[in-house]
């Protein structure tokens, strides 16, 4: 399938690369079909591109890459909806945001993906992690995102 995106131009997405988020994301409930893209300029960064709305692409990173002690605990119902028995069987990414003060990642509401079943959902962590965890761009090599 070909989709026009404002960030990447026209993309050809194979059906096996499509991820289904049955409830969408928080604030983007109508966007249910997504694809994860790698960033050719930055190995630390990926993009979650909406297939339903080509103008929506979210920068995502592995939270453990920047916060090694990050341990995600979520409700069992979230894991069950993805066909997972434990979060360790999932790919977990955090959404990046750009502010005047710098870059942040959302550790409170990460995205959990069952890569095998091509299912994903945004979850609320049981622990009190910040929604805007500041990144030190000088040490993270993420200066060029968003």
From TrEMBL:
Its main location: cytoplasm. Keywords: Bacterial flagellum biogenesis, Cell projection, Chaperone, Cilium, Cytoplasm, Flagellum, Translation regulation. Pfam families: FliW. GO terms for biological process: bacterial-type flagellum assembly; regulation of translation. It is found in: Cytoplasm. One of its GO terms (cellular component) is cytoplasm. Gene3D superfamilies: BH3618-like. Acts as an anti-CsrA protein, binds CsrA and prevents it from repressing translation of its target genes, one of which is flagellin. Binds to flagellin and participates in the assembly of the flagellum. Belongs to the FliW family. Interacts with translational regulator CsrA and flagellin(s). This is Flagellar assembly factor FliW. It comes from Bythopirellula goksoeyrii.
